[in-house]
Amino acid sequence: MHWWRSWVTLSAGAPEPESPISRQASRASIVSNTENERLLKIRNRIDSIDRELLRLLSDRAQCAKDVAEIKESLGMHSDFYRPEREAQVLRGVKENNPGPLGDEEMARLFREIMSACLALENPLKVAFLGPEGTFTQAAAIKHFGQSLQAVPMRAIDEVFREVESGAADYGVVPVENSTEGVVNHTLDMFVHSSLLICGEVELRIHHHLIGDHESLDSIRRIYSHQQSLAQCREWLDFHLPQVERVAVSSNGEAARRAAEEPGTAAIAGETAAAIYRLPVIAPSIEDDPNNTTRFLVIGRQAVKPSGSDKTSLLVSSRNRIGSLHELILPISRNGLSMTRIESRPSRRGMWDYVFFIDLGGHLEEPAVARALEELEQQATLFKVLGAYPKAVL
Length: 393
What we know:
Alpha-Beta Plaits; 46% helix; D-Maltodextrin-Binding Protein, domain 2; 13 helices; 393 residues; 6-stranded mixed beta sheet
């Protein structure tokens, strides 16, 4: 029995062997503790970076206030906003961005920082084609940031008058869409207006069908701007061919009516849907997925070169064979790129037209200046509408 007592003694004193499950749990616990320590270190690092960001942002805001005081002392009351300077900063952000945030996202962050700092100097009052919720409002915010004082106007001509009178510092108006072409009302306003183009905004347009409906069957009428109705024509013809389509002054106005009138819906953007608390029935119903609208920023002051600019002109020539060719020849002769040309009736006589031309470059650049001098000699009507930075965002 000696062997039995020895076995019992050894068994009683020896620890039980560890099961595979226990070993896995032990290793998981060690790994978990290690990862938790890493997370804690990273969070502490984030807290430290946030404190440094707060300090740096406060320093930048103080610099903006100091700049405002210097300008006030020099009597520079209208020189707070510098479009060329902001374009240079945003381009620099995109060029020097180390990642992992994308260039556009980083530029938008800096856009908002500059907007908030500028508001400390002098909050900008910006008129736009309203009411609230239009794509023009979205374009104004994209260009000036959230800290602007946005003023909705009922029509494009009212935006021009608001800026001309000095009631607003700048205005934002649509000028062309990649699908439907130019906004004629905007071009026509430049014929007699003294305002200058100070900037441009390119906005990717996503049209949503919005309204308080559980299905398409209950919709009897759709409101939207005529351009939006045209940009969604194929979708509407396929899904809602019998529904009445009513063009109104803006998509914001369309959303307002859809919120008040039973049986109606609107085609508008996310901003309008949020403002008027309308559910999205069908998202992104535009026929062209690359649908983009270009907006112009209008103001009273000329803009200095930014390094990547456009110059816009309004010109006319005698109604004879070859006159248009002669008119634009100075552009190619000086090695310039003509990025756009549009014609509109001049209203000075039958079949008499004016041409709206966009050139690459700033009017203070030698090649552009030479071309403009030659062009002015050829034209019966010549007007520089503005030289301004190309769209950055």
